[in-house]
Amino acid sequence: MRVATDQDIRRTARTLLVQRGPEAVTLRAIARELGITAPALYRYYGSRDDLVEHLRLDVIADLAAELTEEVGALAADGAAQLFAICRGFRRWALTHTKEFTLVFASPTGETGSAAGSVATLQRASEPFGRIFLLAAGRILATHQLTIPQADAVPPELHDDLIAFQDELLTVLRESGAEFPPDKLNLGTTYVMIQFWARLYGHITLEVFGNYPIPLSKPDAVFDALLADLAREIGLEPAL
């Protein structure tokens, strides 16, 4: 009976995820692959939820590192960086469908059943959320955008958006980014949430093959989405 290490466990969990999907990542399956007993895994993880959370964080870290490398090759232009991140995220999602499903599409209580298991912008302090928001922050700091007035934002969202603003400001401050806090108001926060919702929605439809019509040129459709999003906030279309 061999002794497994934490690295062995995570590597095996990642292999099961990629080859068979999130549902295949179980303590019993990992133990079987490693030739050990399932109880031996409890030395490292208290439950499957605990293991899945660590696996989710590993995937997020790898995605963020890949996108950070891409963005690092660009000029310090927030718009160019943000749209490069959008394209890189889509490319990663389409080529890492099982990881995308675990991290971005598993409803709480199912594949990733730990509370808050799905990575969204509410996890602003995590690597992926951080690089996305830092690029958005650079745009807000350096561009005059077309932003709705506070009275155009649905009143039912005000409390949630204000709470999210506080988290965004914390992330921006911790990153050392120079950002005027007065530019982060209800209108800008609302636009950011709408931007993410449309980007995420489009990519999710593509990943699961649920776009309303067959797409012969999906890249062109995605570029058109980015151009629309750019124009709506007063930026040059992302080409």
UniProtKB/TrEMBL annotation:
Keywords, comma-separated and alphabetical: DNA-binding, Transcription, Transcription regulation
SUPFAM superfamilies, per database record: Homeodomain-like, Tetracyclin repressor-like, C-terminal domain
InterPro entries: Homeodomain-like_sf, HTH-type_TetR-like_transc_reg, HTH_TetR, MT1864/Rv1816-like_C, Tet_transcr_reg_TetR-rel_C_sf
DNA-binding region per UniProt: 26-45
A matching Pfam family: TetR_C_33
PROSITE patterns linked to this entry: HTH_TETR_2
Domain HTH tetR-type span(s) in chain numbering: 3-63
GO molecular function list: DNA-binding transcription factor activity; transcription cis-regulatory region binding
Protein name in the entry: Regulatory protein, tetR family
Organism, scientific name: Amycolatopsis sacchari
Phylogenetic lineage: Bacteria, Bacillati, Actinomycetota, Actinomycetes, Pseudonocardiales
